């Protein structure tokens, strides 16, 4: 797969025709939407191409793909471009995405990109990953407190090295960010481990996917990924996150007991989605409707974007 900066021919597709993992929807102005996600054909290997996006006015018919990000010369990562999410802040658009380096010279991490337009092109904003330089990290999501403090919530990866095997129990962290979103501030705060949820089960890779031998995974690891935070109208702070359950990839809900990012966090007993799909987010549309977005199934290359209306009340997210 080459690194062409030329986008593919733009066409109109129905949502169910778009192959994508880790979908993220942004409503730029009322009634106009952009869809981002993991869009490379070879999501596990490489070399990576970048991120594509799609635009829509009805959430069903989409124009694309549009080249949202293509790596500039000298960019630090060349494989596994995953899970872009975009936030509009102070007149610009900031993308948080996961990248990896095939040489493993530095661990997988979350880098911040920026653009003046929602569809890009996005350019590097942070100097490499804002996540810790000594740990593999993935799936960063932005949370802004009422006092404007900016946080990155992310997963610590379970992979290790030949000298340091990967952890067996994946972890979710919060890291304070500088106001300009270029760097992390202070030490990450552990929010919870995968084993804190009763529904999690050991990792199983999708059918047809073999983990690289140099990942050095612990035996039967539990993992965390795909965090997304939302606050209900009643003020409850919730986190969607994914792991493996009884029926494969699954998505659960954690709830902050005191309504703050640092928690403590308690896990809901049952997953929100239990069968071979996950990495979700909630689109709170200007129409007043709330939608859960995620990819299903988890098997490559069959992944498709799922969008379904949900009802959110207090600590409850219920699929309609």
From TrEMBL:
Family annotation (InterPro entries): Glyco_hydro_43, Glyco_hydro_beta-prop_sf, Glycosyl_Hydrlase_43
UniProt keyword list: Glycosidase, Hydrolase
- TM spans (from-to): none
Task: List, in alphabetical order, the GO biological process terms annotated in this UniProt record.
Answer: carbohydrate metabolic process
* GO molecular function terms noted in the UniProt entry: hydrolase activity, hydrolyzing O-glycosyl compounds
Cite the SUPFAM superfamilies for this sequence: Arabinanase/levansucrase/invertase
Source domain of life is Bacteria
This protein is called: Glycoside hydrolase
Q: Which family does it belong to?
A: Belongs to the glycosyl hydrolase 43 family.
The record, for Gene3D superfamilies, names: Glycosyl hydrolase domain, family 43
Q: What is the originating organism of this protein?
A: Pseudarthrobacter oxydans
